[in-house]
Amino acid sequence: MPPPESVAAQTAIQQNLKWSSAKHGATFTQSKLALPPSKKYLVLTCMDARIDPAKAFGIDLGEAHVIRNTTGSPRQYTAHDHFTDIPIHPSIQAGGCAEDALRSIVISQQLLGTNEVLLVKHTGCGMLTFRNEDAYKVIEGNLGSAAAGELRMHNMNFMPFPDLEKAVMDDIMYLERSKLIPSDIVLSGWVYDVDSGKTKKIC
Ligand SMILES: [Zn+2]
């Protein structure tokens, strides 16, 4: 098998990665960073392409964990979280979703020593703009009735949310109530404005 360097890029995106890798590697000097984040904190935010967490939130390489997601896990809706016995309100969760990130947060804190969480949702989040019924319709149109049937079979919930600041506060409350998050972990909730590039504290 040839070494990875000789495998051709198949798309412009892959080519971009190869070029960027060569450029990055040519001047890279931070090979001695420790595995645990040096500033012992974690940022949870949306996967939205308009957010650059390093720039917008002031994170240098090696300083923090950054977890990015969108809605909660596509799974069967249950009235209470299986592990925490916390009532789940799928209508108020979205990008930068605490419930979906819980496993990563626990690993970050318990295995890699972080002790503070910044939870950042944002304006113009895609999750603000649709309802479950709309998502089902789009998926049926794009992927066909068999795919839509599978969605219904799983009773899949995309967890859109109507109120941004409430969504931030609810997610912080979710973490506060979880027995997996020790009480001495510092939690704060924020909203990033994709128009101004600024982030404001909510709670
Ligand atoms: Zn978002």
UniProtKB/TrEMBL annotation:
It holds the Pfam family Pro_CA. CDD domains: beta_CA_cladeD. It comes from the Eukaryota. Belongs to the beta-class carbonic anhydrase family. Gene3D superfamilies: Carbonic anhydrase. It comes from Zalerion maritima. Its EC number is 4.2.1.1. Binds 1 zinc ion per subunit. Its cofactor is Zn(2+). SUPFAM superfamilies: beta-carbonic anhydrase, cab (SSF53056). Reversible hydration of carbon dioxide. It is an enzyme of class 4 (lyase). Keywords: Lyase, Metal-binding, Zinc. It catalyses: hydrogencarbonate + H(+) = CO2 + H2O. This is Carbonic anhydrase. Zn(2+) binds at residues 46, 48, 122, 125. InterPro entries: Carbonic_anhydrase, Carbonic_anhydrase_sf. GO terms for molecular function: carbonate dehydratase activity; zinc ion binding.
